[in-house]
Amino acid sequence: MSAPLAERIRPKSLEDYLSQQHLIGPKGALRAQLASGMLSSIIFWGPPGTGKTTLASIIAQQTDRPFYTLSAVDSGVAAVREVIERAKKSDTLFSTKNPILFIDEIHRFSKSQQDSLLGAVEKGWITLIGATTENPSFEVIPALLSRCQVYVLEAFSKTDLEALLKRAIKKDTLLAQKKIKLQETEAIIRLSGGDARKLLNILELVVLSEAQEPIVVTNEMVQQKVQKNTVLYDKTGEQHYDIISAFIKSIRGSDPNAAVYWLARMIEGGEDVKFIARRLVILASEDIGNANPTALVLANTTFQSVNIIGYPEARIILSQCTIYLATSPKSNASYAAINKAQQLVKQTGDLSVPLSIRNAPTKLMKDLGYGKNYEYAHNYEGNFVPHEFLPDEIKGTTLYDPGANSKENVLRNYLRSLWKDKYGY
Questions:
Q1: Which residues contact 136 (CB under 8 A, 6 or more apart)?
Q2: 104 and 144 housed in the same domain
Q3: At what angle do helices 52-63 and 29-36 cross, to 10 degrees?
Q4: Of 23, 140, 187, 381, which sits most exposed with the smallest number of CB within 10 A?
Q5: What is the pLDDT of residues 204-241, one digit of tens each?
Q6: What distance in Å separates the CA atoms of residue 231 and residue 237, rounded to the nearest whole number?
Q7: pLDDT digit string (tens) for 12-54?
Q8: Does 118 lie in the same domain as 42?
Q9: What is the CA radius of gyration of the chain?
């Protein structure tokens, strides 16, 4: 049976590698490291299908090093130690360059599994290259992370994905034998979600399911073919982001039934418990916020609990939290406020801090007026006194607009009593 299309046209050199020019372009940080010949251990962090595995393989070929691979999904400590022993022997017998050990989905490694890599990395028996779709700051132990250079891979652009489709049709030995016309690409690109592997899988599915040539690829044709062949769930990326999106939107839409259904889809598909719990923490602040501050407390407790408990019992905790968040009043006021504030900062630049609220640790600063006329709120009735805290250029700007719910209505009335008409509360 033929290998999948994504495997058949996998790039063999940096020249054939699409995208990630910030890393492998003429001024890219990774290209500079390869040119120097001093290759450190690396963590590639990016969405599925952005070429992490391919880039690791190309590095091994370009540096002429032995290349070993492990998947964190099905490799334990024993497998890690076995590969390290083989790498040590390979290093001794065949090369003066230490071998490369590539670990896919390194975020799924437990602490003990990651600990088993430390000695080999420190002593130079291996150069580690890990790939992860999750933030390594959360998923990789500090001791190992401190010994690695983290490179962020970006999702493929529309231009990159179109170029990849054309390359596949032209260069793949099987597809090149067929008469294929890419009439429309919007559907195939949208369904891929920027995942190059998924893009090529869809292209191959569409092309091979057509008996008559020429094969004209259209948006309608792609949509029909993919709907008939949708998988239940693929935690490696096929529907990973589609399902989590449906999960989040169901909670945001206050539908606990749909939310628990999508939760079950992820659990049955073997999704990482921490991935689900982390998204609940984010949602509790982004979509509920001060409409129910306890939501964030419960979500954070859920994250801590499921890390201790693990599957299968963690599903109960996730279900409780999901239902609580789905049935909670909603507000994105805090989320909207920080977005507005950041946009304002980008528009106005580094405005000066008003002198009255600057820190004045030295006599010179006090003489220059730092802290002058600052009014200490606790010296006034109700622990409040009107004062200007924003720079003059943007004073009176309203960034936080309390949501229309019982708790934030209380906040709105409180702020109105303090600031009167200043912020329009």
A1: 43, 45, 106, 107, 130, 145, 148, 150
A2: yes
A3: 20
A4: 381
A5: 888 888 878 888 888 988 888 876 655 445 555 546 67
A6: 11
A7: 888 888 888 889 888 888 888 888 877 889 999 988 888 899 9
A8: yes
A9: 27
DSSP letters for 81-146: HHHHHHHHHHHHHH-SSPPEEEEETGGGS-HHHHHHHHHHHHTTS-EEEEEESS-HHHHS-HHHHT
- Between strands 148-152 and 67-71, the pairing is unpaired
- Given 326, 361, 388, which residue is the final one in a domain? 326
Question: Does 331 reside within a domain?
Answer: no
Tokens at 319, concatenated: 């279900």
Strand ranges across the sheet with 127-132:
67-71, 100-104, 127-132, 41-45, 148-152
Whether residues 388 and 362 share a domain: the answer is: yes
**Residues 197 and 48 sit within 8 Å (Cβ to Cβ):** yes
Show the domain range for 193: 158-228
> In one letter, which amino acid is 232?
L
pTM > 0.70: yes or no: no
pLDDT for 235: 54
> Structure tokens of 204?
């191959």
| Domain stops at, among 208, 228, 248 | 228
